[in-house]
Amino acid sequence: MLTTTIDTQSLRLRPFQSNDLARFWEIGHSSYEVARWLTGLTWPPVMTEAKAFIEQASAANPKTDSFPFAIDHNGQLIGGVEVQKPGDLNEFPELPTISYWLSEAAQGHGYMIEACVAALHWGFARAACDSFAARVFATNYSSQKLLKKLGFEAAGVCLRYSKPLQQDVENIIMHLPRDRFEALHGDADIMMGGAV
To answer: What CATH code is carried by the domain that includes residue 46?
Structure first.
């Protein structure tokens, strides 16, 4: 089970818990404005799918699974950020990836970049890897802007089936070398200290 908690200036990244289900359903899984940018959520939403996510996320084994963090602001769940184990992208099968979502009400306050910087510091320090990858819908310009602020650069294009949109969607594959990230956001090992 994932036990790591990361505190930032405004946020707490923590493991998901079973009591997150109602809030997760309200702000994430049943919000089309959130779901439409994610490939894996069924639309219309299905409660059993939300329950399965919370159960899997709260039981994640950090030695073998991906690392799904809940994002809390003032003690309330506002989103999630996940450091995923290698294998999500055929183009970079050896690289870990990052994915994220944020409730509509929490958008526009800088929370997502704050959470992603913390998650990437943790991911680089913990995995001792040289690069991360990500993918983003070609039409999701705000997410592309976020990834560029983190230091990601475009490295290719792929198609992924979107369950909410029920069609293949063009995604831009992004790549982030550790040295570029650390030049922008500080040394991962120093920033994380003993939190890994």
So the answer is: 3.40.630.30
